[in-house]
Amino acid sequence: MVTNLLTDYWPILVLLLVSLGFAGIAMGGGLLLGPRRSSARKQEAYESGMRAIGPGTRQMPVRFYLVAVLFILFDIEVIFFLPWAVVFRQYYENGLGAFILLEMLVFIVILLVGYAYAWKKGALEWE
Amino acid sequence: MPIISSTDLLAILPTAFVVVWACTLLLVDVFAGAGGKRLTPWLAALGLLAALVLSVRGGGLEQTAFNGMLEVDGFSHAINALVLGSGLLAVLLSVDYLRQHGIAKGEYYVMLLFSISGVMLMGAAADLIVVFLSIELLSIPLYILAAFAQPDPKSEEAGLKYFLLGAFAGAFLLYGVALVYGATASTRLSEITAAVAAGLENPIFLLLGAALILIGFGFKVAAAPFHMWTPDVYEGAPTPVTAFMAVGAKVGGFAALLRVFIVAFPSLGADLAPVLIGVVAATLIIGNVAAIAQNNIKRLLAYSSISHAGFILMAFVPYADDAVYRDTLAAALFYLLAFAVTSFGSWAVVMALEKAEGKGLELQDYAGLFRRHPGLAVAMFVFMLSFIGVPPTLGFAGKFYLFRAVLEGGYVGLAVLGVLTSLVSAYYYLRVVVVMFMQDGKPQAQASPLLNLATAVTAVGTVALFFFSQPLLDWAAGAFLRLF
């Protein structure tokens, strides 16, 4: 099984080469054949087709950052529930329901500690 | 179907206790009033002490726990004792320093406890996945602690640098683990050995994986050529954090390094020996030679800690030799202990002289220390002697056992290099002594009772424990690994 490991990756290598080649042809073709007419508008930073309204290094309220970090944190931790839910029935049918429930409870309690800390520190308040 | 029994939990009781204590402490600190917050350091120290008692009481326990993920044995108990003792010293050093520098926050001690639990797990990790997880558990709190003096730009820089290079090292480690898994179809240390014994189809992947794992650990223990972050991080981080980082991270890194390579990769000993010799030689030479040029005491001690990582790695070179690996393991543990005591002591003296905004850290600020504060100067003298390896200090015993183990392994050249670089190191250590004793100046030390206590304990320990070297070595030799 171990020996097949590398040969299994052949299609990926081929895909990689094809995509590199395709990108190369498309970009190289554009570079060679396309007209180049520069204008002030074209030199501006690309902002999804909108007119740029200022430099990219404006100050942002740090609160956005905090909320985003908290969101990612809890979001990722919720993903750990999924594999647990997948094997739950298996454990339950083997008479280990209490055990696996307890395991998840330990995890949730640790999450709650972090949640209580963030709450008390005022990380969830906008002002 | 994997199941965890109560004996598993009992096996890691000290580690679990530290983790639960840290979580509780976090809540206690955030919900307590100003009066309660003052108790946080002492609660942290109490928790560490309790964990130390638990660890010593369960000292005879030998058990494979969590379906082979953890291996509780004499080695893991020794690592527990080392890191919990270091943690207690770190708390002792931190309390007044944090208050004086206006960064006394309860989270500091919580992070310290989490980092310690990571080191404890590393001592017992018997699976490469657990090794990786515990290395992260050790490192992530340290990244935060390194930047704890924010908005001081030096501290922020230290935190960011440490974080980026730590993540980089983690990637090396993980890629190595993946390659080892590719070669042996397992991450369990014992199963890797079994797979190697049964014959591998692609042995080159095992070697590649082991080499990448070595690089990952090299970053963690600050061995050359993976040491570049050390002086900047050690200089920028708040000094008590540096003191813990120098010892705690090294203990954890070496614990995992020794267990992983001795248990899982004994077959690679001959292939890795030249690499290891190169790393050791580079670390010893770079650490000791670069330290000569330093005028900042924190940077000087940082390079000194790099060179000591080289000395400990020296014991690691003959790891695959069945006849001597026990002696080298004992010598490495003993050297770690000697380094821990001496290092904490020297950082305590640095803290006594450090003033706000990074003043008082130049070597010249130590001029005349003997006249003004003879106690501090004599203590620093003892630590410098111990770093050089002059009897009667722990450092001498550590180097003695180390060189003996290396000679037993048949690496005469390495031992000679060790002695020569020790001689070089005498220059910059004695330079500190000369400045303290023979030059005039007006150093100002803040006498804080806790700091004085820590300095006195480590200074006395450095000398007194020397006379108990043999029992200590026996203790280290009892800290064997469970092999399969």
The number of distinct structural domains of chain A comes to 2
Assign an overall shape of chain A: flat
Question: Taking all residues together, what is the mean pLDDT of chain B?
Answer: 91
Indicate the percent of residues in helices of chain A: 55-70%
Number of strands of chain A: 0
What is the subunit arrangement here?
heterodimer
Q: Termini distance of chain A?
A: 58 Å
Mean pLDDT of chain A, rounded to whole units? 85
Instruction: Kindly state the percentage of residues in helix of chain B.
Output: over 70%
Give a summary of the structure in a few sentences.
Chain A is an all-alpha fold. Chain A has six helices and no strands.
Question: Which key terms come to mind for this protein?
Answer:
heterodimer, A: 127 residues, mainly alpha, 6 helices, 0% strand, B: 484 residues, two-stranded antiparallel sheet
Give an overview in words.
The complex is a heterodimer of chains A (127) and B (484). Chain A is mainly α and 127 residues long. Chain A has two domains: 4-43; 62-120, no CATH class. Helices cover 69% and strands 0% of the residues of chain A. In chain B, helix 6 packs parallel to helix 12. Chain B has 484 residues and is mainly alpha-helical. The model of chain B has no long low-confidence stretch (mean pLDDT 91). A two-stranded antiparallel sheet of chain B has the order 1-2. The two termini of chain B are 23 Å apart. The chains are: A mainly alpha (127), B mainly alpha (484).
